[in-house]
Amino acid sequence: MPAPTESHPLQSSESPEPHENLELSDAPGSPIIADFHDAIGANSNDTSGAETSAAIEPLEYDEDGDENQSLLHPQPRLAQGRHLFQNTILTNSKHSTQRSSSPTYTEDSLDSATEADLLLPSPSSASSIREYFKKRWGTFVTRFVAYILFGIVFILAWKLVFLPRTTLRRDLARLRHFQISLPDLERTLFQVPETAKVREWSHYYTSGAHLAGTNYSQVQWTADKFKEYGFQAEIVPYDTYLNYPRDHSLKLLGVNGIVRYEAPLKEDVLTQDPTTSDPNSIPTFHGYSANGNVTATYVYVNYGRQEDYDLLEERGVDIAGKIVIARYGGLFRGLIVKGAQERGAVGALMYTDPGDDGHVTLVNKYKAYPDGPARNPSSVQRGSVQFLSTAPGDPTTPGWASKAGVDRADPHERIPSIPSLPISYRDVLPLLIELNGMGLNPNDLGESWRGGMREYDYSIGPSTMDVNLYNDQEYKITPIWNAIGRIDGVIKDEVVILGNHRDAWIVGGAGDPNSGSAVLIELARAFGELKAQGWKPLRSIVLASWDGEEYGLLGSTEWAEDLAKYLDANALVYVNVDGAVTGSHFHADASPLLNTVVKDVIKRVSDPKGGYVYDHWLQETKGRIGNLGSGSDYTVFQDHLGIPSIDFGFSGGDNAVYQYHSNYDSFHWMDKYGDPTWEYHVTMVKIWGLVALQLSEIEVISFDVGEYAHSLMSYFSNVKAKISRIVGESELDVDISGGFYDCPEVRGSLIRECKYIDVTAIDDVDLPDLKLGWWYISSSLRNCSDALDKLLDAASSFDAKSSSIKKQYFTDYPWFKGYKKLRLYFQIQELNSQYKQFERMFLYESGLDDREWYRHVIFAPGIWTGYAGATFPGLNEALDARNITNTKRWLDIITERISQAADLLSEK
Ligand SMILES: [Zn+2]
């Protein structure tokens, strides 16, 4: 290597000036530059013009910013540290040759210089060299970090540019670690349920007596199944007031009390049906029937409805002091007893008339079960005679939970005080035959009083002979047990509850309730399968197996009263299946909020008859989803807590007569006549499961407030039509601004200023007698009508908003519109909270008149029907009672609730 000379290009090309230029262009005035000057400071002061001009010779910088020597003047590369030193040293040496005696280094001598020499340059420049080295190292690190950061930002920006557009739905699914899409969940739900499995579960439940508060092993088994299928499960007990049969008899007495006939009060044992010979068979009796031993003459009272009793009264037939014989049908059996008791009757017998079995009867040449599909003449409908429409649940704890040690009320406002017995048509016939030709008959009272027995002419009596009715029940407070299973969802305050009762009046109960229980277990198994595949529901799902439903909805009512606060805050919906399969026609009753969900689901589920369930349902029911009355476990949810509910299943059809609450509702009957292929059971698993998924898995709650508002409109038209019937059509749509109607009340003043009406006489005055008295309620009617219009408007904008949000939920957005998704997320939360509260708006804290447990102003069981749902119950009852003051009061209560609901929907 040649010895460097002063004119070596290295000297000029690596002079400080180009560095300065570069650094200035990179970062003008940066401290690094100042430091650099400091480092060489004193020397550069003396830099000559020649050196300055040499300094502008080109330098090349590699990408990393390290300086390189000129490509035109290649230079052997030194180790970096040494190289830097060399520049400095050489520069220094250049100056030093001019003005100091400091040692000079040539490249050769540098090569041979020791490390010590390098680290210890001349005392005058050593510290500045060290300083310079430090600064240069700092510069290098800073640049390095800056480039790394720049690289990261660049990569992120690159990624953002190419980030795919996504929907909020997909983002949330990712965030919540959802691995399975809804269509996949539904596919599994369609595939998992098996006929062999539901048959197995049905067989389990119908193999031993399971009257309320007995058979703990079944609740344990149910809870274990829930656990096996991935649910958290618990057994929840309540101490309830119940009766168990001890003894009973029914005797027809001749002259001097001689027994002419004693009814067996037993169902026949059938060799083909093992359930009927079970040693634990449960006697025929009524839940909550009063104990008693009464002897009296008797009267046939048709169905024992209010209109039947009223007609008898009208026709001068007094049932006071007598035993009534009623046929089942039309109303809840407790209300037959209540009606009789209130009219002074001393006992009641109830039987199922074959005339109410439709086409499939012995008269029509069908064979009786077990040889054919007709009713076995010995079949008896057991059942509760609680006054269901007053309050369900434990009659000693109306409105609060039956826990150990709680206060208990006298139950007798809610259960009968006269004894009653259920009986088969075969066993009651000897009594009825005695009435032939006695008293009024269907020719006097109407053909609707005639049933289907040929031996009896349906004369009503009263009898000349006495009957002795003896009923002995053991009453006690005893535990019942609910099995509750739960899968926690991501959203914990919107809970979907699915329930079915487990207890039955008989050993079997293959239809009521255990077709529902078998379906519940199979649904749990399907959910377990989903869970095993990694499913976590969006909303929590609760499965309930209730005890004590048959006595009066005990298990569900006590549980919901117990957890009322929690349910009020968290329950989204309750979906009930009681008898899932007792026939082949699909039926559904629901809060109108849920009509659309039910219809959507049955459009997608095949019917074992072929086609879809929806097609058959549409044909059979004209597309009618009924109102929820009472008679099963949805009652406390819908009517007491304002939680929208559904009740559905398959019943009716013309295959076989369903022998409700009798020993013949057995596994054998189901296997042979009810659902021989078990396909209806599997169909119900799918329907129930799909409804649950529809409600639990879709971000925007699938409620339909528009449908609700329209339903209210139609109920209100019925009310107006009823008023119109009562008052007279011409009085309704009148101009209230003049003439008779120009009364102070209409102008907002006090009613008592009106010259036509004496307000003290308004109570309980018959509307027709009041003549144009309807005006008293006209402003209230108008307000109610206005409120409904307001609700309809609010509902339609709300539904529009909801569909727009749903649409946006499925819309792809680029990342930089993330704020829109965030806003959408909060909109959905707000929307869902409005949906959840909507049905609660119709609760009236003080409850319905004389039955304050029922708090829903739109839906309740009819006070004299029990099963069938009444709409605007308070209002309709006031109208039925021709109580105009109360009619107005209820109109105002309803108006307030409707306005409240409209306001809720209008909240932004
Ligand atoms: Zn039931």
TrEMBL record:
Chain ranges of the PA domain: 294-371
* Pfam families per UniProt: PA, Peptidase_M28, TFR_dimer
PANTHER family for this protein: N-ACETYLATED-ALPHA-LINKED ACIDIC DIPEPTIDASE (PTHR10404), VACUOLAR PROTEIN SORTING-ASSOCIATED PROTEIN 70 (PTHR10404:SF46)
The Peptidase M28 domain is annotated at 482-671
- Could you identify this protein by its name? Glutamate carboxypeptidase
Keyword rRNA-binding among record annotations: no
Q: Which organism is it from?
A: Lipomyces tetrasporus
Check the record and name the Gene3D superfamilies matching this protein.
3.50.30.30, Transferrin receptor-like, dimerisation domain, Zn peptidases
